[in-house]
Amino acid sequence: MSTEITAIILLVGTFLVLMFLRMGIGIAMGCASIVTMYYLKLNIALVFQGMVTGTNVFTFMAVPFFILAGDLMSNGGISDRLIKLANCLVGWLHGGAAMVNVLASMFFGAISGSATADVASLGPIELKMMVDQGYEDDFSTALVMSSAVQGMLIPPSHNMVIYACAAGGVSIGALLVGGLIPGVLLGLVLMIYSYFVARKRGYPVSERFALKPTILAAIDAVPGLITVLIIVAGVCFGVMTATEAAAVAVLWAFIVAVFINKSMRIRDFFQVASRSIKTLSIIMVLIAMAYSFGWLVAYLRIPNMVASALLSLTTNKYLLLLLINLLMLILGTMMGMSSIIIILTPVLVPILNTLGISLVQFGAIMVLNLGIGLITPPVGAVLYIGSGISGIRVEKLVRAMIPFYIMMVIALMMITYIPEITLFIPRLMQYPC
To answer: 37 exposed, middle or buried (CB, 10 Å; 0-12, 13-18, 19+)?
Structure first.
């Protein structure tokens, strides 16, 4: 066996063994890198140099601000206002309570960019509202979890920024606006399914549409929604960089939470910031370790091997995209989202370039694909949060999730095979795609 093959087995094997021993993924990558470099007689200092290089990226500076802005808005009293607005807009339809759930998650996701924050913040309110109207608790919880995935597609999304760092040379502005239609599409698919389920099961319809309450609810929700406008408009129209826009959004989110909604005191800011720092530290460790791990992956020519292996199976573009989706779906059930983005993106980029797939389009494909992993056992974090807030066993929730998995995969296939769903707005705004 050649030295190169032995090193690959050592790198991947050490990583997998440590991961299944429940060691943190970042630490597992770092240990695997050190062991492999020692075997290859490379300078171990390269690991630590890679850690510094991996986090010393200007684009990455936007991530802390995105996370903090999302946490501020999550704690800024915006949840009730968004649900009230969503209820005024769609609550009067068949399956209205379910549609309120989806629409509120769409609004909230556009502010927080986090599925876990969505379920934790909106979930208890949405569940009570649906159950009180006669919806089954398992159906309601499954819908809460599924609709939360929209938040990772609809801008602003810190996962898109992480993807941009991993892919290299991809416009953050294009990725942000590119996720808009896919996120809305996912919401529409879930709303259509909810409508037919509501008609079949005879779920009740709330009061008729009224213009005045809708206008008042929209005005009440505007301060929170301006956060999205600051980031998207600032980046897309070239007024600010992604980092500058995210920083301004943090300032505005603070003003909304403390002075407009008055749902947070100034002294509470430090607790919110502390939570954001914990989230950021996990991501930074992953990125730092993944850079060294990724350097070894490139050094051992693993991307070329993976590309050759896939291309040896088929040269059909559509079949290859299906295989890549299956690979990500499987990994998404076992690993964290940020980890997979950082590890897998550099491996897949050469294949995508060979197939002529836009990296902007693939960003939306990857984020939705891995979002499904967040609500899929055995590792799905959102699945366990949903179980926690509803008190329903995970096994029962997984059974209730089956039709939602099907709906989400349908949306995923549409985004995969219809590029214009993702690329229409970026091309309209003349971004390179």
So the answer is: buried
